Structures are given as structure tokens and as C-alpha cells.
Amino acid sequence: MRIAVIGAGPGGLYTACLVKRLRPHDVVEVWEANAARDTFGFGVVFSDGALGGIEAADPALFEAVTAEFARWTRIDVHYRDRTQRNEGYGFAAVSRHTLLRLLQERCAGLGVRLHFGTRAPEVARLRASHDLVVAADGVGSRTRARYAAAFGTERQEAGSRYMWLGTDRPFDALTFAVVETQHGPVQAHAYPYAPGRSTFIVEVGDAVWRAAGFRSAERRPADPVGDRDGIDEVARYFSGLLDGHALWGNRSYWGRFTAVRNRNWSHGNLVLLGDSAHTTHFSIGSGTKLAMEDGLALATALHEHRTVPEALAAYEAERRPAVERMQRTALTSLEWFENIDRCVGLPPDAFNAHLLTRSGRLTRDDLPAVDAEHVGRIRRRFADAA
């Protein structure tokens, strides 16, 4: 079988890696418009429950990735000069650059053909020359857009704005922080991903964003750092939390989260995977996890079914229910943060409780647990893989 993957993010590379483990005689090619060393964003976070499947599917990759992990077991909430520490959670994170490098190395070692700095051939040509084309080209997928009617694509932008940043402030927990500015509340989501490195996502309601005088990317010249003035203003807002540490960007501009859903995940021999198929709000930290779980389900479906249509039907049947549950959870979280001003003003203990439970609809139980039976099935599937 000949398989083409469009997009070399974690989902696309992991899919290619697992297909070659299960089906070493298949020809698997990956195309990525950016160079191999180019990456955007900072850290990638996983809950403990997300790691069992990765370990079972590819122990060598799991060992390499987890050796680079930053780990923590706490959620901190900074609000009105008080820090509430909430223990009993399990998370890990890794640099996105490191994760991609390890996935690239694993793919190359297994014989995947990697084409970096090269746009994929036109999708109609790929569909004619390959048995399967995997669209793993992200939330703005051109591949999906080409067949939007067939996929039944729905896109909805959030009302708030956000910007993805990095800092050398060494956080030691998943951290939520709120500052009350003269224009209204501004919140940050932060977590460590490497020694002396943390992801720092700032989010602000649209009315506050406008009142503060921030500007959109369209009104600024291209800059590899991003919105320098906006970054400086965010650093000023969160100076107490940053405690003298710096904020920096990587093509970091204000954007809106886009919820993506598709009525169909496949169209003939073309299939969607990861953010091209579905998105979840960053406040629940599951985008990379879901993309990699998609890759695992697709690889095993191809291995276990005789034809591509059967495999694609099995892939969607397995993944859609889990994804839709996560999207509902993410929507609840998004709505809470978009309406955070309803809770700002509560006493710190009450605010902490509201944030953790998202008004009683989210609890610790919503964090995915390790499903031992599911992990066992994955381990058996890969037991005879190369």
C-alpha cells in the first residue's frame, strides 16, 4: 500500500511511524511545507492517562519522549494575590521542537520518506497515485478546505483572543492566573515543558482586548517574534507572576480559537486527522493527545481491515465518540473562560473551586485515566510489529 501524509506535526508523524511499525512493506511518505527544524509553539502537555497508549504502541518512542518530560502533580490558581495549590493531578510536558525531532528520527529509522520544505503535490494527484491520503495539515487545512462540502466542515471562532508565548519562568505546576486590569480581567494558562522553560498562553475577552488597544496581526508587518508591543504589555500585566522573568514569542500574534467539526472524516481515499478533523480549546490541553490517538487508531484500523474503506469506517467509528466527548468538555471550559468576569470578584477559595470544576460541570474525573484494557489491546496489536 502507498500512503501519503500531508503535514508533519505530531499527528502526521506519529501516524506514519505506527503504520510502518505495523506494515513495514507499505510505502509511507510525509510532506511538510516548513523545514524540519521549524516549529511554532512551545510545550506540548499530556495527562498521565494519555501516555499509556503511546507506551504500548511504540515503547522505543515512548522511552525517548518521556526522557525529556517535565512532570508535575498540581494545579495552581493565582488570583487576587493568593495562590491556591491543588494536588492530586498527573501531567507531563515536552518541548514541541523535541517531540517533533524524536518523531522525525523514529520515522526515518523505520523507513518513512520525509519531504521537508516541500509542499505536498496537489491532493487530486496524490489521491490518484496513493491508496490513502492523510490530511494532517492542521486547523487551517487546505486539504480539508478543498473538499469542505464533502466533509461537511463547520468552523466557529471564539469571541475571546489569545496569544501563545514562552517564558524562562520555571513554573512547577499547571498554572491559571488572573489579573484585573483597568479594562477588565486578563487570564494566563502556563505550564513547564523543559528546564527553565514554560509555555505561557494569555487570553482576553474581545471587549477588554479592544479597550486595551491591542491590534490584530493583519495590522502589523510580519515579525518572527510576533506582536512585540502586545507581548510587552502582557509582561507588564503579569509582572508579579513572572517575577522578573522574560516573555518571548515565536510568530506570536493575537488570534481566536477556531472550533472545527466535520460531518464526515473521510472522502474516498482521503481522511482527516488531528486538528484538520477536530479541535479542542487549549484550556484542556488535549490537541496533540487527540491527534496522536487518531494516528494510533488509523494505523491499527489499516492493519486490521482488508480494504481502505473498511479501515476508514472503523477509524472514525472508534475515534468520533471520544473526540466528541472531549469537544463537549472543551466547549464548557471555553465558555467558562470567555465569561470569567462572572466569577472575578468571588473570594479566592470560591473562585478556585469554580475554575477547577467549571461551575460544577468539570471535575478531576474528567481527566482521562489510564484504561488498562485499552492499553492491553494496543500492546497485543503491536506485539508482532517490527
UniProtKB/TrEMBL annotation:
Pfam families: FAD_binding_3. Residues 125-328 form the FAD-binding domain. Keywords: NAD, Oxidoreductase. InterPro entries: FAD-bd (IPR002938), FAD/NAD-bd_sf (IPR036188), PheA/TfdB_FAD_monoxygenase (IPR050631). Coiled coil: none annotated. GO terms for molecular function: FAD binding; oxidoreductase activity. It comes from the Bacteria. The keyword NAD applies. This is FAD-binding domain-containing protein.
